[in-house]
Amino acid sequence: MIYVVIAVKNRLSFTRRCLAALAAQNCADVTTIVVDDGSTDGTLEALPRDFPSVILLKGDGDLWWTAATNRAVAWALERAIDDDYVLTLNNDTSFDADYLDNLLTAAEENRPALIGSLAVDPDRGVVVEGGVRVNWLTAKKLVLARGVSLADLALWRPPPVAVDVLPGRGTLIPVSAFRSVGLYDATSLPHYGADYEFSRRAASSGYRLLVSYRAVLRVNPDKTGLHASHGPWAFLASFATRRSANELGHRWRYARLVCPRSTVVPYAVMDTLRVVVGGFRRQVLASPGGGGAGVHSAAAAQEPGTEG
Asked: Is 89 helix (H, G, I), strand (E, B) or coil?
């Protein structure tokens, strides 16, 4: 059994498309759990009517990604056996009918392992992310296969590739991993970074972290939640708000939780400099006469987690 976990707040049109793609999967042994954390767009009323087989759990609007996901995972763990899996998924994704089969095949052939997905931009036909490797000293991320044409990649089907972290967007996790290391850390990382931190804990307990290039996940890069608001004041405010990937508190807590002890301080310093200096540089470029076309968070390339 695969328990698919999706935390949502509004964006009903995305949720409908994602659930329709799940309903069309070749893999039949699937239970989908949606946690609606205070949507105001009719999600709570529409899903039971349009997708009656979906388990719908209701949040109070203050769960954020981590606690909402934990609520669904806890529901699954009460019913699952150790051979089952949990798939964490964002609602702004879509995929073909063989998506779950491909994830499951990779998981069964590489036990024990967490299996991530190949994220692609369908509009441009290129890879957004084929896995992430991290330099724990400099806080730089190497995003594998980024910008590679999906058509070219179809001719080169590598086995699952080893990575350092895995996101909440399309990662298949053995139930045994949750029972071994616990749930996501909703206290320290309520919205960003909890997915990466969980995958590091699982790796420390002997689970391999892999990305299957056969499990293709279509994503919308503009809807990930990683971009900061336009304008200098909004950018400054982004360093202190939980809703922003720039928020420095969670980035420092993330460094403390995941980095090897000897690299915590240099990682935190370099990560902070990259977010702050890179962000201000983008502000200058976006200002009149600066030559820029828009303002985006430096965290879009360096964020330690990808929850939407």
From this structure: strand
Of 274, 254, 273, nearest to 264 by C-alpha is: 254
My answer on whether omega of the bond before 112 falls inside 30° of 0, hence cis, is yes
pTM: 0.88
Residue 190 CA to chain centroid, in angstroms? Answer: 13
In the chain the domains, ranked by start, together with CATH numbers, are: 2-223 (3.90.550.60), 232-302 (no CATH)
Is residue 294 over pLDDT 70? no
Q: Do residues 278 and 285 lie in contact, with contact meaning Cβ atoms separated by under 8 Å?
A: no
pLDDT-based confidence at residue 152 (cuts at 50, 70, 90) = confident
Strands 93-94 and 132-135: unpaired
Alpha-carbon span 5 to 169, nearest angstrom? 10
Written as six digits, the tokens of 9 are 């707040």
Cα distance from N-terminal residue to C-terminal residue, the chain: 25
Q: Angle at CA 303, nearest 5°, toward 248 and 123? A: 140
Cα dihedral 195→158→134→138 (10° resolution): -150
Amino acid, res. 166:
L
Beta bridge partners of 119: 129, 217
